[in-house]
Amino acid sequence: MRLLFNTTFTRGLLCAYLAFLPAIGHEAEAAERKVVLQINDNGPEREASALNVAQALVNRYGDDLVLEVVAFGPGLNLLLSNSKNGSRIAELQQQGVRFSACQSTARKVSEMTAKQPQLLEHAEYVDGGVTRILELVDQGYVLFKP
Fold first, then answer.
1. Greatest pairwise CA separation for the chain in angstroms
2. Same domain (yes/no): 24, 47
3. Would the pLDDT of 76 be above 70?
4. Residue 47 and residue 7 share a domain
5. What 3-state class would DSSP assign to 105?
6. Is residue 26 located within the same domain as residue 36?
7. Is the same domain home to 40 and 98?
8. How far is the C-alpha of 122 from the C-alpha of 78, rounded, in Å?
9. For position 18, what pLDDT does the model report?
10. pTM of the model
11. Among 44, 47, 79, which Cα is nearest to 146's?
12. Which domain does 48 fall in, by range?
């Protein structure tokens, strides 16, 4: 066994193996994290909580994070054009966070008010909030409801 480690070739292989260990470990740490935040309640505390969680995740995981906020039911208010959180949502969107609004909820609001709800420019409609969440979970996203 001693003879095996004394050869230049074997020492070279060992050095190469050891040199790549940190890279292998780094790839495991840098695995992409996929999170969907569900917001289906309204009110300043709920909206602030959802946006605080989104910002904390972006701060912690940065480019290794894929994050989508899905709003439906009363939570749709977060993504309407008159939302007091428009600037925070714009900042998060610039950091890669996607904001999805439930088209089904918007249709119900439209039927009740005879007006189509106007979304913030940083949000987009999806067919249904719950179905969007299920699609994302099927794609490996972790669901979190702040």
1. 86
2. no
3. yes
4. no
5. helix
6. no
7. yes
8. 11
9. 35
10. 0.78
11. 47
12. 32-144
Q: How many domains does the chain have?
A: 2
Distance of CA 75 to the CA centre of its chain: 17
Residue 5 in this model has a pLDDT that exceeds 70: no
Count of residues in the chain: 146
Residue type, 7: T
Please report the sign of the dihedral spanned by the C-alpha atoms of residue 6, residue 7, residue 10, residue 15: positive
Query: DSSP letters along 38-104, please?
Result: EE---SHHHHHHHHHHHHHHHHHHGGGEEEEEEE-GGGGGGGBTT-TTHHHHHHHHHTT-EEEEEHH
Q: What is the sign, positive or negative, of the torsion defined by CA atoms of 54, 58, 61, 64?
A: positive
Which one-letter amino acid corresponds to residue 94? Q
What backbone phi and psi angles, to 5 degrees, belong to 6? -85, -10
Q: Cβ-count burial of 108 within 10 angstroms (0-12 exposed, 13-18 middle, 19+ buried)? A: middle
54 & 72 share domain = yes
Q: Are residues 41 and 25 in the same domain?
A: no
